[in-house]
Design brief:
The complex is a heterodimer of chains A (about 400) and B (about 230). By secondary structure, chain A is of the alpha+beta class. Chain A has 13 helices and 12 strands. With about 230 residues, chain B is an alpha/beta fold. Chain B has one domain: Rossmann fold (3-Layer(aba) Sandwich), CATH 3.40.50. Chain B contains 7 helices and 10 strands. In chain B, strands 6-7-8-3-9-10 form a 6-stranded mixed beta sheet. Chain B has a 4-stranded antiparallel beta sheet with strand order 2-1-4-5, covered by helices on one side. Classes of the chains: A alpha+beta (about 400), B alpha/beta (about 230). At the A-B interface, α1, α10, α11 and α13 of A face α2 and α3 of B.
């Protein structure tokens, strides 16, 4: 018996009991829709996190100075001035797994333009930092090495600062005053968005490192820097780079044995990778919960197919008497079950995708419906049909034609 | 001429729990091509069991059954299904048509399982429906047809695969007397075209249409009589 004919017969049987077919399908529809929607929400979450990873830049290690103890008070991480520009040079020169390293000094500053002012984060750094963070210039130029060497009074503005001081006009070439010192704006950075911690990364102004050290911060240790940013040669080499930086700095700072290090390293992408993993686990969990409803739907299919086999015992008898083999009957009922679940699957996919879109519109939460999840849902619905359709179909195929024909 | 059907010492024992019941106690007869045989007997005489064995729906406990040259005895269920499909046509008391299925698709059903292509199926089914006088009713559903018409559809379904034998189980049991005559007339006409028919009935006047009557009682044949010559007018 050809397959097309089998499908035709199955469709006719489903049409005969439209309401029943629909209600049976409903279990699968809800199950698949839930799976699709949950996966969409879940992968939306991992998408947000991976966006954030991209916004910090990949393969980054943060080196923070350690704490100081003065008069019995420990200042906490970052409180001391143990890292220097020479450390940066040494890292660049001696760590083979390190691609780039950049020092930063950080302070807060009032930036004034005309009669407008804006209080923001001041960062002194070197050109490498923008490369490490993969942060491009949207207009003007970036800070270059001459600016750093010559302690030039130039600055780069983040988008938020520019908007607050210049509105929509181009700030490049204008003069602003940072901590009352006049600076020329040489460039505007591209929008970077929120950091994983929820800070606005565009609310910052950047000046050459030496300018910040000499003119703006005036630390008692003129060569010291705040945090270092280190970029590994590749993601695979990141852990090795971290190790190299650690041992080099220990050596340079003469830390041996059990002495506490006066700096600490943090691997940012690692932290985010963990966050991404937990988001993935979450979406898997949601999917698992949703697939329980799919299981319930499948049991509904089995139930109805069993009823259908009993109801159509006589039809099965006729078909057998006329020459249907066991497999023909088996296939017919399996086809019916699989058609039921696949139709339910298609409707469920549409419904789940629609639901996910509504959720993302209403809660402004990004949802991602991958082709993969649709394919999985579709295959899964077919598998549910095969799995739960098999027993009833087997029962139908195992009927004795004489008894089946006599069945009232 | 080699017989289409030959039964040799067929026994059928039913086991229910530890009770055994012998429904057929050694049946032997042969049917030649072109015969019209009526199997008679009261209920419980074994005629239905015999019919099930003839129809390859049941397997005898012992004995040999040859159908159109095939030894049916040692066959498995799928092989038997194929024999039913190719060699036999069934007409039942209750018509046994598929509901909500047009007449022509009911007639096509054996051809579907025989794996014949759709276009050819349609032509063959059409021809069979014309043969039983139902041209023009192809797309009526069973519920739109009278009992006699439904039985004609069933006969067309039995005819469509050119079987060696048509087996009719109380074909007039659900019909009134004038429709019964009509159907028996059709059987007689088909028999005259050379089709072998074996019919089970308990009604004597229906059995009269057949040329040969075999009577069962208590699992044995008690009479096997030629009532008319083959091809003789009824």
């Amino acid at each position: 018996m050809d397959f097309l004919q089998t499908v035709k017969i199955a469709l006719r049987a489903l049409r005969t009991n439209k309401m029943r077919s629909f209600l049976t399908m409903l279990g699968i529809i809800i199950g698949i829709a839930a799976v699709i929607a949950m996966m969409a929400v879940g992968s939306g979450a991992s998408y947000v996190i991976s966006q954030q990873i991209a916004s910090i830049g990949s393969n980054i290690i943060l080196v923070l100075p350690g704490s100081t103890t003065s008069g019995g008070l420990r200042s906490g991480s970052g409180g001391s001035q143990t890292l220097t520009s020479d450390d940066v040079k040494a890292i660049m020169a001696e760590c083979p797994s390190v691609d780039l390293a950049a020092p930063t000094v950080r302070s807060s500053a009032l930036v004034v333009f005309g009669n407008l002012n804006w209080s923001t984060v001041l960062m002194g750094t070197t050109p490498e930092m923008f490369e490490i963070r993969e942060w491009a210039i949207s207009s003007g130029r970036s800070i270059n090495q001459q600016d750093v060497d010559g302690a030039a009074k130039v600055c780069l503005l983040g988008q938020t600062v520019a908007e607050n001081l210049f509105g929509s006009s181009d700030p490049v070439g204008k003069m602003v005053r940072i901590k009352k010192v006049p600076f020329t704006v040489i460039g505007l950075l591209e929008r970077k968005g929120q950091s994983p911690q929820g800070q606005d990364q565009d609310d910052a102004v950047f000046v050459p490192l030496r300018t910040a050290q000499r003119n703006l911060i005036r630390s008692p240790f003129p060569n010291s820097v705040g945090a270092l940013m280190v970029k590994g040669k590749s993601e695979a080499l990141l852990a090795k780079a971290e190790e190299e930086v650690n041992s080099l700095l220990k050596q340079r700072h003469r830390i041996t044995g059990s002495k506490e290090a006066d700096f600490s390293t943090r691997n940012l992408s690692e932290i985010l990778a963990v966050a991404e993993q937990s988001a993935k686990a979450m979406s898997l969990l949601l999917g698992a919960v949703a697939s329980i409803s799919l299981l319930v739907g499948g049991i509904g299919i089995m139930n109805i197919m069993l009823v259908s086999v009993t109801e159509r015992t006589r039809e099965i008898g006729i078909r057998m008497a006329i020459g249907a083999k066991k497999n023909d009957i088996l296939l017919q009922f399996m086809t019916e079950a699989v058609l039921l679940t696949m139709l339910g699957g298609i409707i469920g996919i549409a419904l789940g995708a629609g639901g996910a879109t509504v959720v993302s519109r209403m809660l402004s939460w990004p949802t991602l419906i991958s082709f993969q999840s649709i394919a999985i849902a579709f295959v899964f619905s077919a598998v549910v049909g095969i799995f739960f359709g098999f027993y009833p179909a087997k029962k139908a195929a195992g009927l004795n034609p004489i008894d089946a024909l006599r069945y009232e | 001429m080699a017989p289409v059907i030959s039964l040799a010492d067929i026994r059928r024992v039913f086991t229910m729990g530890d009770q055994q019941f012998e429904a057929l106690k050694g049946i032997s007869f042969a049917v030649a091509a072109g015969e019209f045989v009526a199997i008679m007997g009261a209920s419980g005489s074994g005629k239905s069991t015999c019919m099930n064995i003839l129809g390859c729906l049941d397997i005898p406990t012992s004995g040999r059954y040859h159908l159109d040259g095939l030894d049916v005895g040692g066959m498995g269920t799928d092989q038997l299904a194929e024999v039913r499909n190719k060699k036999l046509g069934f007409v039942f008391q209750g018509f046994n048509l598929l509901a909500r299925t047009p007449a022509i698709e009911n007639v096509e059903l054996p051809l579907v399982y025989a794996g014949i292509a759709a276009r050819e199926r349609r032509t063959m089914a059409q021809r069979a429906l014309e043969q039983v006088g139902l041209a023009g009713k192809e797309y009526n559903h069973p519920s739109q047809l009278s009992g006699g018409q439904q039985q004609r559809v069933a006969i067309a379904r039995a005819l469509v695969n050119n079987p060696a034998v048509i087996l009719a189980d109380e074909p007039t049991g659900n019909l009134d007397s004038s429709t019964s005559e009509e159907i028996m007339g059709l059987f007689t006409a088909l028999n005259r075209q050379g089709i072998t028919i074996i019919m089970v009935t308990h009604e004597r006047d229906v059995a009269e249409y057949a040329a040969r009557q075999i009577t069962f009682r208590d699992g044995r044949i008690i009479s096997d009589a030629q009532t008319k010559h083959v091809g003789q007018q009824g």
